[in-house]
Specification:
The protein is of the alpha/beta class. Helix content is 43%, strand content 17%.
Length: 208
Amino acid sequence: MAIIALVGNKGGAGKTTLCVNLASGLNKLAPTVILDADPQRSSLQWRQLSDDSDGVSVQDAVDDLATTVFTASKVYTHLVIDCPPSVHAEQTAQALERADLALIPVQPSPLDLWATVHIEGKVDEARRVNPDLRAILVINQLEPRTTLSKLMREALAELSLPTARTAIRRRMAFRSAVLEGRTVLDLGSRGKPAADEIRALIKEVVKR
């Protein structure tokens, strides 16, 4: 079983979009559930848009994440926790103390880089309780032709956390799929490049 926390310290980093697509990819391999611990409940709203009865399940975990993790771990192989966009939130701390892996999406922007610095400290704190916690930065919404995107890996190398080789590009498929209550893995040929990135990220970072 793997417990994966999607962690951010700034809104707009694409955390929930990455969460639902990652969980959908994992669900095709083994039973997976999203635990929505973000008070905005964006993952739950996404699931309500969906008419796919076989799609990945989403449970509300805002008020009692610990109990929800305990209960869900008896049913599902993979738990993906959508955390609030703040490392200071109680739900984020609880998720980091229980997760096997923290994935931290980072956009190619100075604000995202500065926000990520604070996550390092919270990961270190969580490791006092959860010493086996792995934490990996994921470059998200990459635009390869921009100067900042080209410099992104160099900038992230200054941080203590490793960066995934797989980067997720800014693609219209991600946005349109979420608006439809679906994921890029459900879009067929028009979602293939995006779906390939999600599969590559799963293969790289999720131990099975």
